[in-house]
Backbone:
């Protein structure tokens, strides 16, 4: 019975609790590989943001999804306190087939990514500083565009990193 999980809700207005929670979030994100290195900085994926929110008794609620034309979807998400049912934050996001990597995606995937981005944004608006405290960038990974470097390549020798990023050694 040594593995009994203690249920605890961390409170946003208690800095010492948030510092302790940030360490737990960091451990969880690393253990579950829930971050993406982009141009030398680490961005947490939405599952990591949801984990952090869950530790505070927060959950996302999709308020609106709207087709705004030509394969473009808008989503709005609110972050809700599970005890009080109060809305603490809101986030909006768009996803479109016009995006470089989304041209061949089915419409349901475009709609889903709009929701995923809105969830990340809503959490970021409220607890972005907690992710910074945990050592990550305060922008959710799903919002970032740029060269993604797989975590295993982060520790690779410089020549291997350069090759993966399209940089030659001048030869």
Residues:
């Amino acid at each position: 019975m040594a593995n009994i999980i203690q249920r605890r809700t961390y409170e946003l207005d208690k800095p010492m609790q948030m510092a302790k929670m940030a360490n737990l979030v960091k451990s969880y994100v690393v253990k579950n590989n829930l971050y993406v290195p982009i141009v030398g900085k680490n961005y947490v994926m939405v599952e990591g943001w949801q984990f952090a929110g869950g530790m505070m008794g927060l959950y996302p609620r999709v308020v609106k999804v709207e087709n705004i034309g030509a394969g473009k979807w808008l989503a709005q998400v609110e972050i809700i306190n599970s005890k009080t049912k109060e809305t603490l934050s809101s986030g909006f996001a768009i996803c479109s087939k016009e995006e470089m990597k989304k041209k061949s995606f089915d419409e349901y995937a475009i709609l889903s990514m709009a929701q995923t981005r809105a969830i990340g944004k809503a959490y970021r608006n409220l607890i972005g500083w907690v992710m910074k405290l945990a050592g990550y960038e305060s922008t959710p990974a799903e919002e970032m565009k740029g060269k993604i470097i797989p975590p295993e390549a982060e520790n690779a020798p410089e020549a291997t990193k350069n090759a993966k990023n399209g940089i030659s050694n001048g030869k």
In short: The longest strand covers residues 58-67. Helices lie at 15-31, 46-55, 107-133, 151-154, 158-164. DSSP finds five helices and five strands in the chain.
